Design the sequence.
């Protein structure tokens, strides 16, 4: 029974890590989009 609890904790940690990396990736993408958006605004004003 003790082993099962440890496995559960490990699984939750793994899920947390995966969700974290997905969040990081989506943040990176949105930051890139902002940079691209800013660049296109600069292009238009020229």
Sequence:
């Amino acid at each position: 029974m003790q082993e099962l609890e440890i496995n559960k904790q490990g699984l939750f940690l793994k899920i947390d890590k995966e969700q974290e990396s997905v969040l990081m990736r989506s943040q990176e993408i949105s930051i890139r989009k902002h940079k691209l958006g800013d660049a296109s605004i600069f292009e238009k004003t020229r």
Q: What stands out?
A: The longest helix spans residues 2-45. The two ends are 68 Å apart (CA to CA). The CA atoms of residues 35 and 41 lie 10 Å apart.
